[in-house]
Protein: Flagellar basal-body rod protein FlgF
Organism: Variovorax dokdonensis
Amino acid sequence: MDRMLYVAMSGAKQAMEQQATVANNMANASTPGFRAQIDAFRAVPVVGEEPTTRAFVVATTPGADFSHGPLTDTGRALDVAVDGDGWLVVQTPDGGEAYTRVGNLQVGPDGQVTTMGGRPVVGDGGALVIPPGSTVTVAADGGIAARGPGDPTTGVAQVGRLKLVNPDNADLVRGDDGLFRMRAGVPPAEADPTVTVKSGVVEGSNVNSVEAMVAMIASGRSFEMQMKSIQTADEGAQSANRLLAYG
């Protein structure tokens, strides 16, 4: 059978995968701290006895767009955004660490600081716990101070400090839960004192809705073109069979 059929099939498959990625990006255009996923493809020549005239399309290692999202003022004390490069650290169900830019934090019933998704936020000394009913402030270095009801406004005690890290982006891998982790074989990132945060703001998604819509249209047209190629290859094969049958 003509290799054109397989070439077009590989292109259609990758176009469908690209559509899924773009759709996921568009769905998270309003998700705080979301990092857009990037698809990359490369051509692999079809190897055979004949001259190399056609190429398959295969996906390369997918990555993420690590550019910063827009900051939105909220005025809420527990809303924080990493200022520049860096990540907040959260604890995963298996006890490990994962990294996120989602900074709309909250205090659970037990006083533990978590993300809005319920992930415990990791501090330099472990879990961060705030006394119930306290007024919380977050400093630029990630220090968390809590003032209980009736406590003086001066000499507020610091209850902990956010663990802020800044690993190499090449070492980060996105998980199915949307959190980033260090790739296999790389130890967890150490706290970086140069990373700072802003309080009272949250970082939005870095997805550009207009660009995502254009990419969706382009991938849709690419899929249609590949399907047309498959149809053309099938029609060519049928014509050849008729010629052989009645030639």
The two ends are 19 Å apart (CA to CA). Residues 172 and 240 are 51 Å apart (CA to CA).
